[in-house]
Predict the structure.
Amino acid sequence: MISLHNISKSFGAFAALHNIDLAVRDGEFLALLGPSGSGKTTLLRIIAGLAFPDEGEVRFNGEDVTELPVAERKVGFVFQQYALFRHMSVLDNVSFGLSVRPRRRRPSKAKVRARARELLDLVQLDGLGDRYPAQLSGGQQQRVALARALAVEPQLLLLDEPFGALDAKVRKELRRWLRQLHEQMGLTSIFVTHDQEEALELADRVVVLDRGVIEQIGTPEDVYMTPTSGFVSGFVGDCNSLPVQVRAHRAHFEGVVLDVPVARAFDGPGRLDFRPHDIALSVDGGGLPLQVRGVYRRGGHWRVEGTVNGSQRIVEIDLDADQAPPQIGSELAFRITRARVFREQEAV
Amino acid sequence: MSAPSLPGDAPSVRLGLILVAVLFIGFFLVLPLVAVFAQALAKGLAAYGAAIIEPDAVAAIKLTLLVAAISVPLNVVFGVCAAWAVAKFDFRGKSILVTLIDLPFSVSPVVAGLVYVLLFGAQGWFGPWLMEHGVRIIFAVPGLVLATILVTFPFVARELIPLMQEQGRADEEAALALGASGFRTFLRVTLPNIKWGLLYGVLLCNARAMGEFGAVSVVSGHLRGLTNTVPLHVEILYNEYNFAAAFAVASLLALLALVTLVLKTSLEWKFGYSHRSAR
């Protein structure tokens, strides 16, 4: 088990991480999700031993490894741009980790090659061992980077934006494949991403970071359905925000009472967040009026964009694509069926 | 579409610019180069050969090779270290270090030579102590090497810093993460990544080391057959109105320049290594 205790790190005056506590379970697939500058990559590098915290402790299975350099932590690290050795063949790249071992622990040349070939099989690149990295596609390079990292038999696999440089279709395939590999090899994996969709799809648990602080840790379902902060609510998934006044468990938006329950007990200004799909068209004349400005298809739904209640505030709602799309310029009325309300000062 | 919209597009302007460049290069570079060889061979091949195998000339050539053989490797080591430090680490005073590396480009070589006379000369700071212990630096080979190192040390570092900065640290980090030691990482990852840039830097460094005049002139003392390098030997011959011999020896330096140029160009052509870029 990997655990982080009270980790802080600054670069000059910039506080990259602030009092991070995190426990990663064995066999878990964990996502570090956040916008750029949130500290997620720094955190990953601290876990790897490529960066060192100013304060706090990193423990692997209870053992303090905070001062241990990367070479001694036995982790596999896949870099954002793969960092393949461009002057070495694919096979040599994959063999590298085994071939640089101290003589005593180094397998024979033949064994190293055989192991590298096995790994290339595993990442479905058999037969490409003699190529050079520049001769491979992005997805193939990614797999070589993975095979190279796995060659040293790490318990922990760390991936920095593993799919960032790939096009959408390859990305989807690779995600599925990586998840499978993770199960198959019994790894513990941590990956960094700024793409919430990727985190929600792939991870067992998601750690949402913002400005060097952990905002929420939870399953994808938790993080999406019950975000605990305004930041998480706005960052994970599509989200509409309305400024509201809360009085007696009711939210008021520009004088309209929204008939959605407010679970939290506070009175005063707040922000109401709802997903585009958490609405229902209202047929009895009540609800919020929406002036339709644009409509496009989003899978099985119409994504309807419009201004709400005659203001300039834009919201997006999803309508069933079985129905005809609403006309641009027409007016609808909708009710919010599920929402979260945050105090104004929390909602920044 | 076809009408030129910028003055630069007009054929007359383009032709004019090309002409200016060609004339300029022809007058300032090609003509003198031709003149060197013409003068060198003015008294025939026999005289040319004699001037080159004359004992003082041979001694000068040997000395030049020796000085280059010492100072170039030292500057390779220094250049790689400096470039590594600047490109891969963040530390206080980094910009000062980069500026200092450029100093030899901006300071007159005469000053570079005088500095060593000031330090190690008979009247210099360490002069008396050195004299007591029988160590000669000024008017001897060590002085020539020191002056040459000072003048040529930016070449390798300057070549490598942008290259290594562009390549970043990810490759090295990947090697370390795979369990490689720092030294192995350097040998197997860093060095192959920079080898063409390094070779290019070595080539320029060597050309300058062999051709340096000013700094070396100050510390040499012009002892014939002892502390005269090729450029200094050329000057002596010239001052003695021995033009044919002077130009014959000078033609060796010109030849060195041409060989350097050819090697450099073929490197660029063969490996697609273009100045200031990694791949």
In short: Residues 168-185 of chain A form the longest helix (18 residues). Helices of chain A lie at 40-48, 90-99, 109-122, 138-150, 168-185, 196-202, 220-225, 230-235.
